[in-house]
Amino acid sequence: MRPPIALTIAGSDPSGGAGIQADLKTFSALGVYGTAVITALTAQNTDGVTGVHVSPADFVKEQLTTLLDDVIIDSTKIGMLANADVASAVADVIEARREDFGTIVLDPVMVATSGDLLLDEEAARVLATRLLPLADVVTPNIPEAAFLLEQNPATSAEEMHTQGEALRGLGARTALVKGGHLRGSEVVDVFVHEHGTELLRGVMFDTRNTHGTGCTLSSAIAAQFARLAATEHGDDLTVMASAREFLASAIEHAIDWEISKKPETGHGPTNHLITVGSDRL
């Protein structure tokens, strides 16, 4: 026997709130064995990103092929890709070995919570033209969806729906357009799939501890798909709902956290370990 297995292809975050670190913690919290291919090292904390050291594209490809030659992958989350060479290398391997990646969740990481740019324009074009058509789910927030589509940011759920349909038009099987940037009493995400559109509503928490929420949600989606691969029960909407529930709980259980020496200036992390005993943290 083997456990459900998920792969994250993303950058490293030394502060532990986002990137590879958040993904692996989320996989573990949801009972999934995590594997990882690192696309970049970052120097960052809760205040922001001070430097990025991108992995050579050939080495990213070597990481992927070496892993896939040995380990069975049920689902894959793609996060920070940094530049066009790395994005192209990832696309090359997926195009050649699509079945080895399982269900693919594409999180088009472009800007950190702090506002720092994490993806250049050429890489964004590769993501839109080569990786989107390979994705089962794409999970942009409102600015990311607008950037990918070269449109103005959505200002309503109706416009989010229109942009979700446009992302499906670029090849993604489904699109979850996240509405957290539309501040209000609740969060409304729009899930566009082959059978229609669903508005997924949740609580808008008043907290600065939102670093890595996009990474956490996309890795939770990948984890749930990995679990489905083992059980063959459930559907896309069930996966989205359970992943959003995990993220909401992770945010709620970190509202009072002060990881930073200056908690009033930065963005702290969520609590990825809620399923393993948050009362001990």
TrEMBL record:
Recorded E.C. number(s)? 2.7.1.49, 2.7.4.7
The pathway where this protein functions is:
Cofactor biosynthesis; thiamine diphosphate biosynthesis; 4-amino-2-methyl-5-diphosphomethylpyrimidine from 5-amino-1-(5-phospho-D-ribosyl)imidazole: step 3/3
Q: What single Pfam family name could you report for this chain, choosing any that match? A: Phos_pyr_kin
Supply the InterPro entries for this chain: HMP/HMP-P_kinase_dom (IPR004399), PM/HMP-P_kinase-1 (IPR013749), Ribokinase-like (IPR029056)
Under catalytic activity, the entry for this protein gives:
4-amino-5-hydroxymethyl-2-methylpyrimidine + ATP = 4-amino-2-methyl-5-(phosphooxymethyl)pyrimidine + ADP + H(+); 4-amino-2-methyl-5-(phosphooxymethyl)pyrimidine + ATP = 4-amino-2-methyl-5-(diphosphooxymethyl)pyrimidine + ADP
Where the record annotates domain Pyridoxamine kinase/Phosphomethylpyrimidine kinase, the positions are 13-258
Enzyme class label? transferase
MF annotations from Gene Ontology: ATP binding; hydroxymethylpyrimidine kinase activity; phosphomethylpyrimidine kinase activity
Q: Where is this region: Disordered?
A: 261-281
| Keywords recorded for this protein, A-Z | ATP-binding, Kinase, Nucleotide-binding, Thiamine biosynthesis, Transferase
An annotated GO cellular component of this protein is: cytosol
| GO terms, biological process | thiamine biosynthetic process; thiamine diphosphate biosynthetic process
Quote the function comment for this protein.
Answer: Catalyzes the phosphorylation of hydroxymethylpyrimidine phosphate (HMP-P) to HMP-PP, and of HMP to HMP-P.
Official protein name in the record: Hydroxymethylpyrimidine/phosphomethylpyrimidine kinase
